[in-house]
Amino acid sequence: MQANIQATYVQPAWTYSPGIWRQDPPVPHRDHVQSLTFVLIHGSWADASFWTPVAAELTRVGHTVYVPEYPGHGNDPNTNVSHSTMTKSIADFIIQHNLHDVILVGHSFGGSLVQTVSQLVPDRLKRLVFLNAFVIQDGGMLADEFPPAVVEQFQQLIKSSGNNTLMLPFPLFRETFTNLASLSDAQRIYNGVKPEPARPFFEKLHLKKFYALPIPKSYVHLLEDTAIPLGDPRYGWHPHMSSRLGLYRLIQLHGDHMSTTMLNGELVARKLYEAARD
Amino acid sequence: MQANIQATYVQPAWTYSPGIWRQDPPVPHRDHVQSLTFVLIHGSWADASFWTPVAAELTRVGHTVYVPEYPGHGNDPNTNVSHSTMTKSIADFIIQHNLHDVILVGHSFGGSLVQTVSQLVPDRLKRLVFLNAFVIQDGGMLADEFPPAVVEQFQQLIKSSGNNTLMLPFPLFRETFTNLASLSDAQRIYNGVKPEPARPFFEKLHLKKFYALPIPKSYVHLLEDTAIPLGDPRYGWHPHMSSRLGLYRLIQLHGDHMSTTMLNGELVARKLYEAARD
Amino acid sequence: MQANIQATYVQPAWTYSPGIWRQDPPVPHRDHVQSLTFVLIHGSWADASFWTPVAAELTRVGHTVYVPEYPGHGNDPNTNVSHSTMTKSIADFIIQHNLHDVILVGHSFGGSLVQTVSQLVPDRLKRLVFLNAFVIQDGGMLADEFPPAVVEQFQQLIKSSGNNTLMLPFPLFRETFTNLASLSDAQRIYNGVKPEPARPFFEKLHLKKFYALPIPKSYVHLLEDTAIPLGDPRYGWHPHMSSRLGLYRLIQLHGDHMSTTMLNGELVARKLYEAARD
């Protein structure tokens, strides 16, 4: 034992001659950046412009970025779209553009689309990245991921919409989607919001295949996101939904649900790259 | 469907001509700072000087700041004050100084005073801000918010005080109120501490009105605060007590229970402003 | 009451003459750095070189650092070592080098050794520091701290080793021990990993004395560590295991289980000092 200890005792040099250690520590080096192909899937109450600053930054540093806008969003006036229609449109987009080795990124509602799209075109995908995004259980639906009182509130708003859409009142949006932003930024973001087609919130998703796919996964967690009320461990982005991924890579940053990504593209692009690289 | 996809496909430009995107991302801009009126309510084992660095910084950037010191603290030798006496003194202060549109900020014990003061002068208040502060349930008391073993320890300390006060031993204070500070800073802060009147810890608070008030609320969470023991989800600042606020704005920063606010006024003032602005 | 309020009303000066306050706030000062003696205990799948950058930095700023490599690690080919053999070797090391007032730091598995070593040489120790390290219950074992599904996976890997060791597959290691690192850094770290002697994972530890020792304790929490799966409150570094320490000082930083310490010695050394100082 003592011999072993003597042999493995690490250098009195650390004690008496610190100088020589200055040459030794591994120098953190800037790794060669991988050139990746990103497909970015926005969430509810958003359109492709949600990703503009992130896409610009990812492109600037050498990646290839696609931002499909799926049915029921942007200029599409159809408010009765289903989750499977959205899913198919994104899968078609990936096939039509002949994309391979895709980093498929979903934000918020987009997470559920990452799950369903992965079932249609698994061979095109290199990694799935969830940015404070839903990870739905097999047979579950989005509405399962909110406390009943919130779902009830949503249902009243949907009923009063007259066209099966859900629009968030500004005070709720300001405090829980853009809590870190200034009022004028929050208002500007809110002004771009259209009522969200409600149907996909209540559609059961079949995700058995997703949960069997061997595609690597990452979860990027924005730490100040309160879009799903905190305090009940049966709800929430992380670790509640993230842990459903099984083995995944965790990346965290300070940010809220919506404004950080829209206002600080450089930061979020950097974290998405850390999530996406091999 | 395909037409829709084609129509909403966002620019091959992102892929092939990153240059043009450099002009497009929304530039985060420095919003015009709102000039706000803050009333800052310190917590237990503190007096108005707790806020000096924060108040100085808030004032420097253009806000108006009031720091009332309530009965049983500072130079007031009365150790038998009640929660309602403290509450009334702060409400009177707001009325006497003819304050309106007040951002009422409470730290720690001060959170329970924010709750009760808001019931007396709701029309004077623009927003309630809790900085790792108690949010007591209707009919509850401060002692409810500590595990029974801690309450028992407190009761022994109170008993041994001889005058119904509670003084924290330095080792406890150093590790759980000033964990991020140097020893000399922790000692300097501790040297300013007076035994805390214990009566309000065990007084039931009637807060039905507070929970019905439509005044906007924010919770500012210091991430390294261990003043309430961690690890039991039935206790703690955030998300346990914060979630009682219902809809609230979350702001987070790295910091401990007491020293960060007293030593890094600039940081805490910035976060309080982010919590307080419209 | 009113008189009291008048007396304690803190300065209209804050409102009207901010200038004078610029001189008043306590200036955060660089405290004189204490010169401390660190003994750094690495964890599983590591050897003394794990601490090289941290030890270099601690030494550079004036501390004395010892990094014992314990049996079953580094150049010791013995894979059948017990927890008590490891414990005794470290205690012997401390005695042989005549160390006193030691800051005993354990990372990961090293936390359990900090616990057992403290029982053998309590009078030599000034403070115990846990860096995302195990804090085992009296009568418990390391295997208790992983969900049963993970333990089962470990047992299969041990069985297939043929020599009672446990080696982590690279994909698991990359995502949960080095999630913040580049692939090349993760590979470089993994290339230095040797299969870990499995016996100590399943040995019951008698820790009654540890839980009665009055030695101050700190827990340094790396926020992006997923080496123990997250999402189940019955498992995890902090606050699950940290809270077993009773009174302890919490320090937090962003980092993963292994790469941050090995690649960013300056940051981790600074946090260890904040954890270690009086």
Automatic annotation (TrEMBL), chains A, B, C:
SUPFAM superfamilies: alpha/beta-Hydrolases (SSF53474). Gene3D superfamilies: alpha/beta hydrolase. Keywords: Hydrolase. Residues 38-201 form the AB hydrolase-1 domain. One of its GO terms (molecular function) is hydrolase activity. It comes from the Bacteria. This is Alpha/beta hydrolase. It comes from Paenibacillus whitsoniae. The lineage of its organism: Bacteria, Bacillati, Bacillota, Bacilli, Bacillales.
